[in-house]
UniProtKB/TrEMBL annotation, chain A:
NCBIfam families: modC_ABC (TIGR02142). This is Molybdate transport system ATP-binding protein. The gene is modC. SUPFAM superfamilies: MOP-like, P-loop containing nucleoside triphosphate hydrolases. Keywords: ATP-binding, Cell inner membrane, Cell membrane, Membrane, Molybdenum, Nucleotide-binding, Translocase, Transport. Belongs to the ABC transporter superfamily.
UniProtKB/TrEMBL annotation, chain B:
It comes from Sinorhizobium americanum. Belongs to the binding-protein-dependent transport system permease family. CysTW subfamily. InterPro entries: MetI-like (IPR000515), MetI-like_sf (IPR035906), ModB_ABC (IPR011867). NCBIfam families: modB_ABC (TIGR02141), PRK09421.1 (NF006939). GO terms for molecular function: molybdate ion transmembrane transporter activity. The keyword Membrane applies. One of its GO terms (cellular component) is plasma membrane. Its main location: membrane. Keywords: Cell inner membrane, Cell membrane, Membrane, Molybdenum, Transmembrane, Transmembrane helix, Transport. It comes from the Bacteria. Gene3D superfamilies: MetI-like (1.10.3720.10). It is found in: Cell inner membrane; Cell membrane. The lineage of its organism: Bacteria, Pseudomonadati, Pseudomonadota, Alphaproteobacteria, Hyphomicrobiales. This is Molybdenum transport system permease.
Length: 355, 233
């Protein structure tokens, strides 16, 4: 599967002029609010008709302004999960789910319905009205509704942005299952580095309506402060779930030689997982700290230090095969005498790894 | 209760009124939906002129509306002659004319009520429906119409109530012919014009009050039921 998008569009004084490609899997459109991500997704969906643009999915030209070709929204079969769930208030959950299925034709079997309902854990909600659901439940129903319309492509516009932390942690695993169990390509809009790190294979960074950078998630997210706001600088760590601590509601993730504890019971043991560890959440110590609440103390050696910027430096530390970034003050660097090759302990609070 | 017993002529007037009001309400509904949709969503030249024409019967003296109908839909009027010659549909001095007059008088009320509810619809829900594969007609039927149902019900009841009470335009357009165009209001008026007609006027007035009250309460019930169904998420 391949998706090609090119669009330029002017809305008042704001201009979008962007192009990106996706080769399947999850492609994240990443950028701060107001950068034009949502408009770009609306153009892909057909809800917004750009001044100029071209959209091709698997060689099938969906829209091409040069050839005056424009497939209307309802014939694109692109599923769309909006930031607010947009469930139909006059229909029950069951009928909301069945809505797109009906237009997709009778091709969908009852077992498909049952499978998706099971995957999203919404079996108990079927007879309820959308107004009686919690935010997280609504969003899961919205995902199910989009999936049951047998989309060729799934667009998700900040589906977690309107939810609190606990609800996000509740839904993310479902989206991961969706990514791993269905083969539908996903374009995922987000301004959260942690979400993008966890879900996306490819990242397209949008700024002021333009593509600032694009590439695989590990390349883009590990670029020192290139694409990502300086405040968000950090490192992407890949690992696998080792075990669950049900009593303390923690998940232990093995990444290289390190064990990292993260909050909530996420994913099943053995599943691959990606963590984004922001530099400002990592402390460094030259001796092994004792009597400390932080659960993750990783041994490592300093790879390099960035030049000081506004009094702070980014220190890259190799911890058992993972490169972790720590942002400390230039004062601490001098006080501890940090330099490349020096062994240090990187300390990460577990709760800082919440989504 | 002896005095409440209605004469045949009085029953005829009641039945005629109900028939005229029902036909007026049902036949203006599709047109009102289209016009309300155009006024609420359309961006076309002459939109404010259309709005003005729709609201005209509300502000004009009913006699004037009746007179205009007579000019347009009378036997020799341009529209009236065309309809009579091509479809055999005659309005002048027929109960159909009374229904037309009532429909025109109730039209602004119906359009207003439907238009307000269309403007209150969250268009993002319609966008969501189209991403799920519904074409514009299906979006309208499966999302828009259910969401504006309370407005439609209110509009229908208002139109019905207006038709039950309509007098000026009807009597000007189709006169006051017992059994054909003499509605409840016209019958009451006739009773008050003859000596000793007070009892008859009183009987019909009571019927009129009961019908109006029933219509009003029914509309409240239906609107509440529709609102319960579509309670915002």
């Amino acid at each position: 599967m391949s998706l090609e998008v090119e669009a330029s569009h002017r809305i008042g004084s704001f201009a979008i002029d962007a192009a990106f490609r996706s080769e399947g899997g999850v492609t994240a459109l990443f950028g701060r609010s107001g950068s034009g991500k949502t408009s770009l997704v609306n153009i892909v969906a057909g809800l917004l008709r750009p001044d100029r643009g071209r959209i091709v999915l698997d060689g099938d030209v969906i829209a091409d302004s040069g050839k005056r070709l424009f497939t209307p929204v309802h014939r694109r079969r692109f599923g769309y999960v909006f930031q607010e769930a947009r469930l139909f208030p006059h229909l029950s959950v069951r009928h909301n789910l069945a809505y797109g299925r009906w237009f997709a034709g009778a091709g969908k079997s009852a077992s498909e319905f049952a499978k998706i309902v099971e995957m999203l854990g919404i079996g108990d909600l079927l007879e309820r009205r959308p107004s009686t659901l919690s935010g997280g439940e609504r969003q899961r129903v919205a995902v199910g509704r989009a999936l049951l319309a047998t989309p060729r492509l799934l667009l998700m516009d900040e589906p977690l942005a309107a939810l609190d932390e606990a609800r996000k942690a509740e839904i993310l695993p479902y989206i991961e299952r969706l990514r791993d169990e269905t083969k539908i390509p996903i374009v995922y809009v987000s301004h959260s580095v942690a979400e993008v790190a966890r879900l996306a294979e490819r990242v397209v960074v949008i700024e002021d309506g333009r593509v600032k950078a694009s590439g695989t998630a590990s390349v883009i997210l590990n670029q020192p402060a290139a694409a990502i706001a300086r405040r968000e600088t950090g490192a992407l760590v890949e690992g696998a779930v080792e075990s669950h601590d049900a009593q303390h509601r923690l998940t232990v993730v093995r990444a290289g030689e390190c064990l990292i504890r993260i909050p909530h019971l996420v994913s099943a043991p053995g599943n691959r997982l990606r963590l984004y560890i922001a530099g400002r959440d990592v402390m460094l110590a030259t001796t092994k700290p004792e009597g400390i609440s932080a659960l993750n103390v990783l041994m490592g050696t300093i790879v390099d230090l960035s030049p000081a910027q506004e009094g702070s430096v980014d220190v890259r530390v190799d911890c058992g095969g993972n490169v972790i970034v720590s942002r400390i003050t230039a004062l601490s660097r001098d006080a501890l005498g940090l330099e490349p090759g020096k062994p240090v302990h990187a300390i990460i609070k577990t709760v800082a790894l919440d989504y | 209760m002896e005095w409440m017993a209605l004469s045949d002529a009085e029953w005829t007037a009641v039945r005629l009124s109900l028939r005229v009001a029902t036909v007026a309400m049902l036949s203006s509904l599709p047109v009102a939906l289209l016009v309300a949709m155009a006024l609420a969503r359309g961006r076309f030249w002459g939109r404010s002129i259309l709005n003005g024409i729709v609201h005209m019967p509300l502000i004009l003296p009913p006699v004037v509306t009746g007179f205009v109908l007579l000019l347009l839909f009378g036997r020799r009027g341009p529209i009236g002659a065309f309809l009579a010659d091509n479809f055999g549909l005659v309005f002048s001095f027929r109960w159909t004319g009374a229904a037309l007059a009532c429909a025109v008088m109730g039209f602004p009320l119906m359009v207003r009520s439907i238009r307000l509810s269309i403007e209150a619809v969250d268009r993002k829900l319609e966008d969501a429906a189209s991403t799920l594969g519904a074409n514009p007609i299906w979006v309208f039927l499966t999302v828009t119409v259910p969401l504006i149902l309370p407005g439609i019900v209110t509009g229908m009841i208002l139109s019905f109530a207006k038709a039950m009470g309509e007098f000026g335009a009807t009597i000007t357009f189709v006169s006051n012919i017992p059994g054909e165009t003499q509605t409840l209001s016209a019958a009451i008026y006739s009773f008050t014009q003859v000596p000793g007609g007070d009892a008859g006027a009183m009987r019909l007035a009571i019927i009129s009050i009961i019908l109006s009250m029933t219509a009003l309460m029914l509309s409240e019930l239906l609107a509440a039921a529709a609102a319960r169904r579509t309670v915002a998420a």
